[in-house]
Amino acid sequence: SKVVHLYKCVLLVELTVSCENLMDKDIGSKSDPLCVLLMNSSDSQWFEVARTEKVQNCLNPKFAKKVSIDYYFEIVQKLKFGIYDIDNKTVDLNDDDFLGELECTLGQVKCFLYSHPLPLQQTHTCIIAEEIKDNRVVNFEVQARKLDNKDFFGKSDPYLEFYKQTETGWQLAHRTEVVKNNLNPCWRPFRIPLQSLCGGDMEKPIKVECYDYDNDGSHDLIGAFETTMTHLQQASHVSPVFSPVCLRYQTVICNSVLHKKTVFSNYGLKCIMHVVKEYTFLDYIMGGCQINFTVAIDFTGSNGDPKSPQSLHYISPQGVNEYLSAIWSVGNVIQDYDSDKMFPAFGFGAQIPPTWQVSHEFPLNFNPSNPFCAGVEGVVQAYRACLPQVKLYGPTNFSPIINHVACFAKQALQQTTASQYFVLLIITDGVITDMDETRNAIVNASRLPMSVIIVGVGGADFSAMEFLDGDDGRLRSQTGEAALRDIVQFVPFRQFQNAPREALSKSVLAEIPGQLVEFLNTMKLAPPNSNPASAMTVSS
Question: Under the cellular component aspect of Gene Ontology, which terms does the record hold (predicted)?
Fold first, then answer.
């Protein structure tokens, strides 16, 4: 019998990016930089891996969002860090100002702090790589009282920054959201990996800074203090009440509670925190968690007549179109995480036989009691067989299929272990018709073991899809209810049209492991087998 190991021994590396002296491309304000990381594939094509957040009005940004990638010692992994000034909400970077880029290898970054001038003017970018060895995280609940008012009109708009001490100085580990016009803010609960905050050393100093946010980037320091995780943890357990802290001046630590030593009026900070060990994506997969993959395909009339070469549903003489390419790219990766490889596949927006009523949730095999297809090949065959049997129509409604998958995810949540997670792939060509209902469906699904991937085919306006992808803010329902987490990943297919197939799948699936881990750990769900073997094998 032959034994095949399902994964290689690799290191997980976390990258932190900062820049100095960026070009100012805006008139009347400063550039709004964002960093995009690209990697080089085996056939020398660049594909996008991740993006940081956008930093408003700042020429010396410290990006809070970290990028985690696998490091292979035996492979030269080429990286490209592109810096852009973002002035719109589109995902396409071609309409944003280019500020510079840096090419290097992961080996260069892994071995030392990598600092290099960008090609344009005297700009420098700094990349710090750190191996992730500690899977503990810190769950924070923080609120403040009687903060100093830094605004002439209205009240301060406070946010917090947490810093890790390194050999070269303080490194940003986390930045909270801004609480508008409030001197007694209560920030949303957040989590910081212990590795990112103190390198796993509970006695290592950390720094917390509180700022008043200003739109022009000239944020006012309200105050700061230094402490250790040990002291924070003790204070949280012994006296989880408002503790006056010295913001901007030296902090005196007494009986595990932070006390103010200054003539300023009392600042209060209440911090409740718990250090917990989190299961990793590999822990869940090796421990028996199944990823259930569902496909939904857009059959609306805007795709064009499938018999016409101009149609997005037209199957070329080579047997491909954008829909098929997306199915193959995503399905080939995700099917390895599903033991039975039976995938439900649906269509929406078409008139279907025999009544020719419009349906927004019909099985591609026209069998409602058994919509499953055998592997990616089965999905492709069902799509090909379905296409000539339906009439493309409309409108483009997403909510029925999202709610359909959510029903199964809700049933899975009733189990006591992390046995199942659901991924819905929606492939579409255009604007959503039921936006309000779709927003409601996504907000509801954010509380379930479920993620939604949207691949946009064709050249339509996809701004609505980018709105659903909550990278720049938390999606809200019609009634104002916020999503518990970001579960939507949108990718325009044509951005990868000339790239290798694995480039699309890597970009589309990049956020799934993090979304799965975040949800299952938040719900305190362990893998069905919480003590998996150190290596999983398949014998044949």
Answer: plasma membrane
CA 476 – CA 176 distance, rounded (Å): 19
Using DSSP bridges, classify how beta strands 450-456 and 420-428 pair: parallel, antiparallel or unpaired.
Answer: parallel
Q: Specify the DSSP element, H or E, that contains 491.
A: strand 488-492
Whole-prediction pTM value?
Answer: 0.70
- In tens, the pLDDT along 112-166 reads 455 556 555 567 788 888 878 788 899 999 999 889 899 888 999 999 999 999 8
Phi-psi region of 488 (alpha: psi -120 to 50; beta: other; left: phi over 0): beta
d(CA 269, CA 267): 7
Domains of the chain: 11-131 (2.60.40.150), 136-251+265-277 (2.60.40.150), 286-488+501-523 (3.40.50.410)
Q: Give tens-digit pLDDT for 9-38.
A: 467 888 999 999 999 988 888 999 999 999
Please state the rounded mean pLDDT for residues 366-372: 96
10 Å CB burial of residue 80 (0-12, 13-18, 19+) is middle
Q: Are 429 and 388 in contact (CB under 8 A)?
A: no
Mean of all residue pLDDT scores within the chain = 84
Structure tokens at 13: 């590396």
- Dump pLDDT digits (tens) for 486-500: 999 888 888 777 776
pLDDT at 255 over 80: no
- Burial of 144-170, coded b for 16+ CB within 10 Å and e otherwise, reads bbebbebeeeebbbbbbbbbbbeeeeb
How far apart are alpha carbons 359 and 395 in whole angstroms? 10
SS3 335: helix
SS (H, E, C) 77-134: CEEEEEEEECCCCCCCHHHCEEEEEEEEEHHHHHHCCEEEECCCCCCEEEEEEEECCC
